[in-house]
C-alpha cells in the first residue's frame, strides 16, 4: 500500500468538526439528553431537512481560528469508533500505517478563496484575530503576541490580497502539511516525499480568466493540480483547452504518480525527506527540480510557534456557535 495526500493534512484546522449532535437537536426545537437520542432524531430527517438544519450552525470555512461545526472528531472509545486518539500523537509515536507517502500542496493555495462566494474573503475579515488556528493552543498573553508577530509576517505593508492568500494558504494547508510530515518522519520506516506544485499551465490561466481574476494572478490555486491527473470541470459545460506544453506536463505528472502507486517510488529525481530541519521537496514547474527549505521564511515562524505549543485536536465537546 501507498498513500498520497494532496493539499491536505490531519493537522489542517478545516479538517475537524465538533461534537454537536445535542446542539443540532436544540436548533430543531427538540429536547434530547444523549447523543443516541440526537442520532435517532437526525436519522429521521429527510436529506432536505438535514441540509436546512445544517445551515442553522455557522460554518465560516475561511476563519481558521474557529472550529467548523461539521467534520470528523476524536470519538470516545466504543466498539464502532474509528478514531479515539489525537492524530498528532499517533504520528509522533509512529503508530500510523507505515507506507510510502507523498504529501504536498499548490503554490498559492489561498487563491481558492477568490473562486466562489462560499470561499471569498468577507468584508469584515480581521486577519489578526483569525491568524492563529483553533488547534494551536496558547495562553491569552502569548496569543496576543503571536497574533501581532504573524500579522507582521503577512501584513507589514497593510492588508492586501496577496498577504491574505499567503495567510490562508499557510494556516489552512502548508503548516499542517509540513508539521505532519515532521511528526511522521520522526519514526518513519518508509519514505516520505514532499512536493510543491508551481506549474501555472495555460489551462490554469484559462480558468483564472473565466473566474475573472486579474491577468497578473500568480501561482497555482488549491485543487489545480488535479487537472494534471484527471479531467476536471471547474465550470459546468466548459472544457479547458490543453496545449502541447500542458499535455507534456500532464503526461509527466501521471507517470510520476503512477510509478509511485505501483512501486512506492516515483522513479525520478525526487528524493524523500530525511532532515527535519531541511524539508527538501520536488518543485513541480516548467523545469521540475529538487529544492530545499520549503517556504522557509514563513514556515520557520510557524515551526517556532507549533514547537512551543503543539497541536491539540482533543476538545471534543466544544459546542457549535
TrEMBL record:
Domain of life (superkingdom): Eukaryota
Keywords, ordered alphabetically: Glycoprotein, Hydrolase, Serine esterase
Single annotated GO MF: carboxylic ester hydrolase activity
Pfam families: COesterase
PANTHER family, per the entry: CARBOXYLIC ESTER HYDROLASE
UniProt record similarity statement: Belongs to the type-B carboxylesterase/lipase family.
Protein name, per record: Uncharacterized protein
Species name: Dendroctonus ponderosae
